[in-house]
Amino acid sequence: MVSNSDVTVLIPAYNPDEKLTTLIEEIIKEGFQQILVVNDGSKADCQSIFSKIKEREECILLEHDVNRGKGQALKTAFTYFLEECPGSVGVVTLDADGQHAVEDMKRVANKLTERPRNLVLGVRDFSGEDIPFRSKFGNVLTKNIARLACGVKISDTQTGLRGIPAHFIKKLLGVTGQRYEFEMNMLMECKSNQIEIEEVKIRTIYLEENKSSHFKPIRDSVRIYTVFLKFILSSVLSFGVDILLFALFIMMLNGIFVESYILLATIVSRVLSSLFNYTLNRKVVFQSHSSHALIKYFSLSVAQMLASAGGVYIFFELIGFGEVGIKVVVDGLLFLVSYVIQREWVFKKKYAYRAEQ
Asked: How far is residue 50 from each of residues 15, 65, 313, 331, 336, measured CA to CA in Å?
């Protein structure tokens, strides 16, 4: 039977206070026998805290000479875990500032032992009036962007309380991000690696309006949202290439093919921009190597091309001018439809989701 002793606890720490030693004492009392603590380049004043931690036989202290970010601190511990903890079910990560209750950590650990192939998230409730605005706003924004951009439905994308299965940790070492963006990238990696996500509801604790958090709303949000910009940038660039090519071919073909120049301009510009977009999506956005994705993508492109040509032709017949402007409006609407279809069909990978009530 799997017990708490089969789960490794991981705590990245940057400039912690005495709450960290109290937290560790409580964790040890619950029967956890291996605790990895990463000193991520903390100031000299914190050395007495880390000295106390080193004295505990249940603790392993890993240290960075300078602050390298939460993501890198996790990766440092992951490397140690893979080399020194071969029998562990996985890792439970939690923050060093006391904002995760040990009883909630136990629930996440228990769920991980029950489902050792899945990623377990301890998710908070952000609907309360006592939740700091920056935390509420940040969570609402990131979870909705994640859902829109990647089809990942997660209640709390920023939670630091996570149960990570051992088999997934090696893959996470290759995931980009050294700071808070790494935790978001970890969630995105679940989809591509067919890792099911479990949610466990936990208490929402904010001490002193969350002043101890090292999360910088603007700087770190930009890093987190970068994972989504590649989706948008690829589509915008391809859209621009398509419009420019369409305008060029309209000028070239108008007067040569009186009845069909709009259709021909649409077809040629769409074929060329589709090749450009597919290459970006395959190599940069979705990183897919499936031949089936190519077939699906160009099937979608043909359908979208015909819809675009038909839409532009019909509206031009009604209005009688402004082919390029009509093209922008029609393709802007088709862009939204195409984006969802690419995400859910063309480049879709198997993904499962379960939430514990």
From this structure: 10, 14, 71, 58, 52
Do residues 62 and 198 both lie within one domain? yes
Q: Are strands 353-355 and 197-201 parallel, antiparallel or unpaired?
A: parallel
Domain check: are 254 and 187 in the same one? no
* Residue written as token pair 């603790």: 59
Side chain identity, residue 192: S
Domain of residue 43, residue span: 4-215
Number of domains composing the chain: 2
CA distances from 59 to 29, 36, 47, 80, 113 (A): 13, 6, 15, 13, 21
Burial per residue of 145-170, b for 16 or more beta-carbon CB atoms within 10 angstroms, e otherwise: bbeebbebebebbbbbbbbbbbebbe
CATH code for the domain in which residue 172 is found: 3.90.550.10
End residue of a domain, out of 215, 242, 259: 215
* Pair of tokens at residue 10: 């991981």
The pTM (predicted TM-score) of the whole model is 0.65
C-alpha span between 311 and 326 (Å, rounded): 8
The proportion of the chain whose per-residue pLDDT surpasses 90, expressed as a percent, equals 40
Give per-residue pLDDT as tens, 48-59.
Answer: 999 999 999 999
